[in-house]
Design goal:
The complex is a heterodimer of chains A (323) and B (253). By secondary structure, chain A is mainly alpha-helical. Chain A is built from 15 helices and no strands. Chain B has a six-stranded mixed beta sheet with strand order 6-7-8-3-9-10, sandwiched between helices. Chain B has a four-stranded antiparallel beta sheet with strand order 2-1-4-5, with helices on one face. The termini of chain B are far apart. The chains are: A mainly alpha (323), B alpha/beta (253).
């Protein structure tokens, strides 16, 4: 088989994708307008989940503290707005830079450890930041959350209203654009190098690859994207709570990513949709026990679809084609 | 007269793990274009020596020189960029990637564009052609786009060599290239080793004496971390000490 053709085919846009994006654009606006604010939350969470997929799915860095960068982005954008600059796009850029810088600093530690030590360090980082934000109450609002955020009109035209139309369009647009960027990254020489490092870091070293430098770069990029997701949440909800930095958020996106399927970007989006919709529906029916169902779902998926729901679907489709 | 610069040279390398001495005063020189075999019983420290040369293990004392330049303190990946490349005794590949992707990754790293993420992979036509050409040369062209874990064992051994060649090495260290390869698949591997470019200096560890005596012009015998002797294949074949180690000793060869 021609190698050029094969690589091109691997990177091409599938018909499913062409169908997927218009559906997620249209569905909340026309069919479920009451779910617009949930839809924004899903888009934001999906973006956050994609940022985790970059490091976990592609580069093989496990993190249980990625909400640290989400929270840093949220506080950066929130504080900027609370101090008088509420322009949303520059707020995103500011949050991205702050979170990426924090990611870069942390990355020096991250690339030196593996396995359990990596889990402990990322966990510890999350705890550390929550306590830091809590103790700097006069600055961050502490346990009451950051107040006084005022997000200006998007591009000077669209107001962020109670109904959340602007919020959803804005979140979805940012998700879509950054999704395209991430897709570029994973299908580039850099993306291939990351996958090789994930598969066998000793071998990439023996081929001359500076593993640590590559991993630091993707960790920094991932932190920046997580920061943008956090900033979106701060801007669209006009509040930031300590919870945005917390362990629960870190653990939840890891669950979503594993549910959806790692290392395929769409797994992150699908996982976020399933998790958030399930939580919304189940919590409506039975608020105390909804984690029971999520736990059950997680166990079933991991047992029967080790590569996540999307991985399982791909396998079914491949089986169908063979018949 | 100016002495020719050796491609690779180790001087008085020592390494011990506690009381276990794994490298004992090892001085070895590899001239340009050498075909040098390193033999010895299991546990003689052959792979350890490769690990010391490539920087996987730091020596307790001694030096390593590549092209006459000191590289003793350099990181492994930097040594690779300078042209000192190895393969592994146990397949050390990228199971989920295809051979094409694996070799392409090595080519891109060598070209210094492995961190580039603006243009897609498919746009690197020259690198793709080179990777595919290398695989075709080693007889892996037809399987270039299958996942590596699906390849036959002998093919995986060939991919080990393809990966190393993709870095354009000056000195190639082959750690038991034929280990575990069934007879039916060994011909392709022998051919690949015979076809290595003459300007690459090769040091190979091998238990298959057929391979050793076919390809080596010099042989070093390592026993318990020490160099027992070094010589031409003929000298080694008739050396009573070597016969003692291989035939009379408790270790099997």
């Amino acid at each position: 088989m021609d190698p050029h053709l094969w690589l091109k085919r691997k990177g091409r846009i599938s018909p499913y994708e062409v169908v997927f994006w218009p559906i997620v654009l249209v569905l909340p606006f026309w069919l479920f307008p009451t779910y617009l604010s949930l839809s924004s939350q899903i888009a934001i969470t999906a973006l956050f989940c994609i940022s985790l997929d970059l490091i976990l799915g592609y580069a093989g860095i496990i993190s249980l503290g990625h909400a640290a960068f989400f929270g840093i982005g949220a506080y950066a954008a929130g504080l900027l707005s609370a101090h008088g600059w509420g322009e949303p796009l520059s707020g995103l850029a500011f949050a991205a830079v702050v979170a990426a810088f924090a990611g870069w600093i942390v990355s020096f530690m991250i690339v030196r450890v593996q396995h359990l030590a990596l889990l402990m360090i990322t966990l510890g980082l999350g705890f550390l930041l929550v306590e830091l934000a809590n103790s700097l109450g006069s600055f961050t609002g502490g346990a009451d959350g950051l107040q006084g955020i005022d997000t200006w009109k998007l591009l000077g035209v669209w107001k962020f209203s109670f109904w959340g139309k602007t919020a959803y369009a804005y979140s979805l647009a940012v998700l879509f654009i950054l999704f395209l960027v991430c897709r570029r990254i994973v299908r580039s020489p850099f993306g291939l190098t990351l996958e090789a490092i994930r598969e066998n870091p000793d071998r990439t070293t023996a081929l001359g690859a500076p593993n640590r430098a590559h991993l630091q770069k993707i960790f920094t990029l991932s932190a920046g994207i997580a920061g943008i997701a956090g900033a979106l949440l701060a801007q669209t909800t006009e509040t930031v709570s300590l919870e945005s930095l917390g362990f629960q958020r870190s653990a939840e996106i890891a669950i979503m990513l594993i549910l959806g399927g790692t290392g395929r970007l769409y797994g992150a989006i699908l996982g976020a949709i399933i998790f958030m919709v399930a939580r919304d529906q189940l919590a409506g029916m039975n608020p105390q026990y909804w984690y029971f169902w999520i736990g059950l779902l997680l166990m079933i998926v991991v047992l029967f679809m080790p590569r996540g729901i999307l991985g399982g679907l791909e396998r079914l489709a491949a089986l169908g084609r063979r018949r | 007269m100016i002495a020719p610069v050796n491609a690779l040279e180790t001087g008085h390398l020592n390494k011990a793990f506690g009381k276990l001495v794994v490298a004992d005063d090892i001085s070895l020189t590899l001239p340009q274009g050498a075909r040098h075999a390193l033999i010895g019983p299991n546990g003689a420290g052959k792979t350890t020596l490769i690990n010391l040369m490539t920087g996987v293990l730091p020596p307790d004392s001694g030096h390593v020189r590549l092209d006459g330049k000191e590289i003793t303190g350099l990181e492994s990946d930097v040594r690779v960029k300078r042209g000192l490349v190895r393969t592994f005794q146990i397949n050390t590949l990228f199971p989920k990637l295809t051979p094409l992707e694996s070799v392409l990754m090595a080519v891109l790293e060598r070209e210094g564009i492995s961190g580039q993420w603006i243009a897609p992979l498919a746009a690197r036509r020259d690198a793709i052609d080179e990777a595919f050409g290398l695989l075709t040369q080693l007889g892996l062209g037809d399987d270039a786009t299958r996942p590596t874990h699906d390849l036959a064992y002998g093919q995986q051994r060939l991919l080990e060599i393809a990966l190393a060649l993709a870095t354009k090495p000056k000195v190639l260290l082959l750690d038991e290239p034929a280990a575990g390869v069934p007879k039916s698949e060994s011909a392709a591997l022998f051919e690949a080793i015979a076809a290595l470019p003459a300007d690459i200096s090769v040091l190979f560890i091998e238990h298959d004496m057929n391979l050793v005596f076919t390809f080596a012009s010099r042989i070093t015998v390592l026993v318990q971390g020490r160099i027992l002797t070094e010589g031409s294949p003929d000298e080694i074949a008739h050396d009573p000490q070597v016969r003692e180690v291989y035939l009379g000793g408790a270790d099997h060869g």
